[in-house]
Amino acid sequence: MIALLIFSSVLEISSKNIYNYLIFVATWLGLTAIYEVYKYSTKYTLEDDGVHVKSPLKSNLIYYHNIRDVFMTEGFLQRRFGLSSVYIITPKEAIAVRDLNNGKEFLNLIEDRIGRARTD
């Protein structure tokens, strides 16, 4: 939203192009809404045999024996809002579980399941 406001401030909006500007704003907000719905509908659950990633488009099970590394990061804004991101590294891909309220707990549960020392 901030980017839209900054971008809009440098545009020359007149009565001739106001219709095009409104189409641009509607498209921007629509795509942002679609992204937010997709992001918040993706669920990560810890099961007995792996981490189950369920999104609207696909479902994936990451087995614990395939996990090579797992770590947590916190950016400036994430710390400010009490959030963190956990990254799960497998031989084929890296899965980012972003903006978790309980990132340390999620990380410790995965580390327990893969047999690594807990990160406290």
UniProtKB/TrEMBL annotation:
<dbReference type="InterPro" id="IPR005182">
    <property type="entry name" value="YdbS-like_PH"/>
</dbReference>
<dbReference type="Pfam" id="PF03703">
    <property type="entry name" value="bPH_2"/>
</dbReference>
<feature type="domain" description="YdbS-like PH">
    <location>
        <begin position="41"/>
        <end position="110"/>
    </location>
</feature>
<protein>
    <recommendedName>
        <fullName>YdbS-like PH domain-containing protein</fullName>
    </recommendedName>
</protein>
